[in-house]
Amino acid sequence: MMEALYIKYLCPFKKYVTLDLIGGPRPLQFRYFINMQKGATFFFVLACMAYYDNWSWTAHVYLASTLCFVLSIYQHMSVDHGIYGFIWLLKDITVPDATWQVYLTIPSAIVAVVGLGIYWVAGYIVVAHRVEASPSLGALCIMMNTLGSTLMLASDTQKYFALKYKKGLISDGWVTWSRNTNYLGEMMLYLSFALLANH
Fold first, then answer.
1. pLDDT tens string 142-172
2. β-sheet bridge partners, residue 28
């Protein structure tokens, strides 16, 4: 019954709000808004650190993740939120997901910007509220983020190449045990951000 309600009501509502809100021209793809937000995460956290004059270990772990990404592109490692943004950009360039290549109406674009802005709350909390995470919690967050990044990247890459050469259901490799390994990875990523922010 819940699945029927979801398919009949929630899916069309979600599509309307995220793609067709109020109607009108569709000037930009959804991925541009996602990429802008994820790519700007490093600069947002750095600006918060400067504004709040917070150069603590925890703030640096959050920020270092963005710096580590630049160094780790060649080593296939990740650390935390900002790095996730850069990893996402790299993924969109190399193995783009057709899901995010849809065009949005202007009101839906505004909803996207506001919705994506919520993802910066954890970084803001860490810096503005001077959250101090223990080294053990920091290590746990880094491990969760690394594993989550691996799951997301590997399964999205498999999906891209599998669908490029043969359309249909993918049932091997990273999706052998779970249909949504990429989303499991992203849930681990965002849980690591929330844990680091103590929320």
1. 899 889 989 999 999 999 999 999 999 998 9
2. 104
In the predicted structure, residue 112 carries a pLDDT above the cut 80 = yes
Q: Is residue 89 part of a domain?
A: yes
**What pLDDT, on a 0 to 100 scale, did the predictor assign at position 2?**
83
Examine residue 12 and state whether it is found in any structural domain, yes or no: no
Angle at CA 35, nearest 5°, toward 30 and 38?
130
User: Does the reported pTM lie above 0.85?
Assistant: no
Q: Residue 60: count other Cβ atoms within 10 Å of its Cβ.
A: 16
Range of the domain at 171: 25-196
| Chain position carrying tokens 């969760």 | 144
**What does the block give as tokens for 77?**
């490692």
Distance of CA 144 to CAs 138, 148, 195, Å?
A: 10, 6, 10
Residues 133 and 124: their CA atoms lie apart, in Å, by 14
Task: Please state, in angstroms and rounded to a whole number, the distance separating the CA atoms of residues 49 and 56.
Answer: 9
CA distances from 30 to 96, 97, 109 (A): 12, 11, 7
Give 52's DSSP letter: T
How confident is the model over 51-87, as pLDDT tens digits? 999 999 899 888 866 554 333 333 333 344 557 777 8
The total domain count for the chain is 1
